[in-house]
Amino acid sequence: MTEPRAVPEPRTVTKARTTLDRPGLAAFLRHRRESLQPEDVGLPRGQRRRTSGLRREEVAALCHMSADYYARLERERGPRPSEQMIASIAQGLHLSLDERDHLFRLAGQSPPPRGADSEHISPGLLRILDRLHDTPAEVVTELGETLRQTPLGTALTGDLTGFSGPARSLGYRWFTDPATRRRYAPDDHAFLSRVFVSGLRGAATLRGPGSRAAQYADLLLARSEEFRRVWDEHEIGVRPREMKHFVHPELGALELACQTLLDPDQPHFLLVYTAVPGSESHEKLQLLPAVGAGTPG
């Protein structure tokens, strides 16, 4: 879990419209698609490109849906999109929070809440992440829930985006799934336990009773003796070290510096992992594209 930082309180949400505005939705989608260039979303421009913005099939791939489904939305056809579909489109088109909320209302849906539980990655973080083709990186929440990884990030730690429920949190898995610790040097395990407990305590205090952080703490207090022991120490402010010691299943030990970029509007963090040039870890990083991700950490 990442040390929590105070972020602006979410705005008051008024009741959204319940009617699908097909013309408005289609026009907004077309405008956003045509205003984006391939390099804005981490795609190669290629030769002989005549489209002024992104192609429909490119947007569909970014949104994890069929090109036919997306095309029907732009043509004012098809069924009313679900909240999950709208959220995926908002992320694929790199919308801001205001644009995301507008898209939801056009689709006749209530926008998701803002604040600590928001999982919509800001366009700024996405633009940076899309450019990190040769670097392990990920966007995580304050509870250590990985929202997106670069391909090399997946190669380093495994795909961390496929977990559900409390297991989405690295700190939760740390105390409930022994396999999680295999990706980290044994000498760091005790310190990392303190980091995760301290971070969760801070988040639970900041967000208050009933928050997801408080729920995770209650679950771990019931499930893990080690968590209870560290929790009883009442440590706060135990921050992660800059140097991380990973254990890759094929490459072995890796010593990587972790640089953190904080989203100013919501508790999301971009973590970028690099190695000292000329070091053994730097040489191993060059091999990451050729090895499999293996079991996620």
Give an account of the 3D structure.
The protein has 297 residues and is of the alpha+beta class. It has 2 domains: 22-106, Orthogonal Bundle (434 Repressor (Amino-terminal Domain)); 123-290, 2-Layer Sandwich (Beta-Lactamase), CATH 3.30.450. Helix content is 39%, strand content 11%. It has a 5-stranded antiparallel β-sheet. A hairpin with a 5-residue loop joins strand 4 and strand 5 (268-274). The chain starts with 21 loop residues before the first helix and ends in a 12-residue tail after the last helix.
Overall tally of domains: 2
Net shape: globular
What class, by secondary structure content? Answer: alpha+beta
Would you tell me the overall average pLDDT?
90
Number of E-type strands: 5
Please give the largest β-sheet.
5 strands, antiparallel
Rg, Å, rounded? 21 Å
Top CATH class of the largest domain: Alpha Beta
What ranges have pLDDT less than 50 throughout 5 or more consecutive residues? 6-16
Helix fraction by DSSP (H/I, runs of at least 4): 25-40%
Q: Sketch the topology as an H/E string, one letter per element.
A: HHHHHHEEHHHHHEEEH
Order of adjacent strands in the largest pleated sheet: 2-1-5-4-3
Number of helices: 12
Q: State the oligomer.
A: single chain
Strand content: 5-15%
Q: What is the CATH fold-level name of the largest domain?
A: Beta-Lactamase
Distance N terminus to C terminus? 14 Å
CATH A-level architecture of the largest domain: 2-Layer Sandwich
